[in-house]
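DATA SHEET
Item: assembly model
Revision: 1
Owner: S.N.
Input lines:
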Amino acid sequence: MIYTKTGEYAIRAILFLARQSKETLIMSSEIAKSEEIPAHYLAKILQRMAKYGYVDSFKGRGGGFKITELAKKSSILEIVERVEGPVINLKCVTGLKECSDETPCPLHEEWAELRNRIYNLISSKSVQEVAEKYTETLRKPS
Amino acid sequence: MIYTKTGEYAIRAILFLARQSKETLIMSSEIAKSEEIPAHYLAKILQRMAKYGYVDSFKGRGGGFKITELAKKSSILEIVERVEGPVINLKCVTGLKECSDETPCPLHEEWAELRNRIYNLISSKSVQEVAEKYTETLRKPS
DNA sequence: TTATTTTCAGACATAGAACTCTTAAAGCGA
DNA sequence: TCGCTTTAAGAGTTCTATGTCTGAAAATAA
């Protein structure tokens, strides 16, 4: 994967919340169980996401988390970079020191295109769009 | 980067050896210095690469390493996977559990294409081809 | 034969990612 | 008010990647 487990867990949790039909509160343990993520670790990640404004949290009986409008409008890239820092290392696949746009290695240009497309792939759609379209796909299998 | 520092160091070292015009022996400390890689650590990586048959090693005065025919004909992907295990996690960028070719998430198909192209990029050319073409690029800047 | 050089090999150390554990804080229901 | 529930928060542990250190082994030169 192109990001860390922490980033992946954040994305899976936010998509899980985005796919809830009703805006009920979901406990972190429920997300952890459903997504098979270590519960304590996910709780910490969700705490950070609450701090960043991607989820609203409610303590106590009947408490839990729900997705915020900010998160719905954010892209996967935005959320992952917020949680773990820059996602894709810009360095070329050959790792060559002198490789650059001026003196490109043989793989550089294609790599640059692929890297840009990956960026675009995870930044051009919002979390809400991804979640809604996937919910439709699961409802109407081809 | 899509692979670990260890994998990257292995690739950089093998490309360094591939770019030597003469088949002289190069000491691991020279590669480390040139590529700014921790010398002791690179020595360990080169030992493993010698075991896998990617370099020939010679102890003692005037000793060092040189690239093998096997390595010249191998791809970046083959070498990296030998050194660090499978490179690209096949999992989709959304990390969705149920996402598959049967029930693809909205990003799945494009991601699958990109992933396949990355694989192809680092497996379709040999180390020798990459090194030679890059040496030409450095000789004749545009 | 000895000194020097360089790789070989394993033990060890460090740093960061991933994860666990425990207690405090806050909220709800009775 | 109390008991229970769930999040908040920090300390701590484990695992893995990265890196260091030291001595052995092997080879060359003198």
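QC remark: Residues 4-6, 38-41, 44, 58-63 of chain B lie near DNA strand D (CB under 10 Å from a C1').
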